[in-house]
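## Example pair
The file below holds two records. Each record gives the amino-acid sequence first, followed by its structure token line.
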Amino acid sequence: MALYLRLLSFLRPYLGRLLLAMFFMALVAGANGLTAYVVKPVLDKIFFEKNEEMILLIPLGIVLLYLSKGVFDYLQAYLMGYVGQRVVTDIRNLLFQSLQRQSLSYFDRTPTGVNISKIMNDVSLIQNAVCDSFTAILRDSLTIVGLIFVVFYRDWKLALIAFAVLPFATYPIVEFGRRLRRIGLKTQRKVASLTSFLQEVIAGQRIVKAFSMEGYEEGRFRRENEELFRIMLRRTKV
């Protein structure tokens, strides 16, 4: 949690765009709730009452509803993408600035590939936390609130039954999230190791060729790559 709070501090310069994106997220959530709400009127007016006037108006309204939802969704995605990219750019600048101020002993004990991986790969993962995770949590939370209102408005007894079952569905989601975080950490470490290996081998090609070590290095890379494959496969299984 402390890490996320620290990450949110990078959002302050872009608070205006963030709030505007949240506004469009709320509109998307409202459109989702409205979509669920109109299901019953559509069935009643068109299929049961066979109201000819509604047969013309309701499809037009549904098209406009989905068109508006698509526009709002695009605007919030663009704004969150802008904020996420700016945060990633700012963090990369800070990391490189910090790297330039490290002592020579730090560079002696830290492989070059690890530093490159931190600046390029690890920072890119932050964009997922800023854009994808934050957007999904906020937008889905607003959507859930809207759908809960619709469900209780339609049938409060059925809604209470659904809420009674909800806690049993929460535990697997939390457990899967923990497993994904552990696998994600292993993936980052392995990518850093593989990047360091590539930098070492490519920079030392004269030595590799001088001692005819191409086959040996190919075997090392194959083993490292297979380990990364197994980690990514575990993530897919989860």
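Second record, same layout:
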Amino acid sequence: MNPDTVRRERAKGEPILYGDASQAAVLEHINVAKARILAVVISDPAAIGRIVATARAHNPALHIVVRTRFVAEIEPLMQLGAQEVVAEEYETSVEMFIRVLSTYLVPKADIERFVREIRAEGYGMLRRSMLNTADACSLEGTCSSFGATVLTVASGAFVDGKSLVASRLRKEHGLTVVAVQRGGKTHLNPDPAWVFEPGDRAHVFGEQDVISDKAWLFNGATDESGVAA
């Protein structure tokens, strides 16, 4: 938001104010003590924390919803007084798994149930699956043998310098790359022409045993015969 937008919308009759919400005086000015709900959607983590803590101190009954970037920021914000924290990192992961399950022809109703289960548990199930390479979903009998993990491309590894299609990860190795993180950006469903570079973080989906056996394709440690790659 900027001052020009505030002036324009105020001229239209919108009840809009401009100020630093991390300052107690600003929250007092907007009468946060009597508000029912507060949505915090700025990008500064430190300022978000100050806003949540100050608003909670002024209004113990206030319902606070926060948008943040990373999973690690959820718990601290909850401790400061936020009731709901939506992490962009989580939502990206949820979208990735929706696309993966759709690719494997999992029924839409089951996918929707899976997403509800994740969100109902505060995304805890998804966090465990990504950190521990556990089951990628809890749909009984649907994909219990499948898992997901993040593999970092090492310099000189099999995929280094190869395109997604040339590496034949899915056709020959049974691995599906659903996203690649590079330079702080997450690229969902990368194009077949995508060329891997050292440092790329590939989000890989497949059978858990296969993922373990094929990790050398990304980390460059050894090939299938155990010979250094």
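Notes on the second record: The chain has two domains: 3-82, 90-219. The mean pLDDT is 80.
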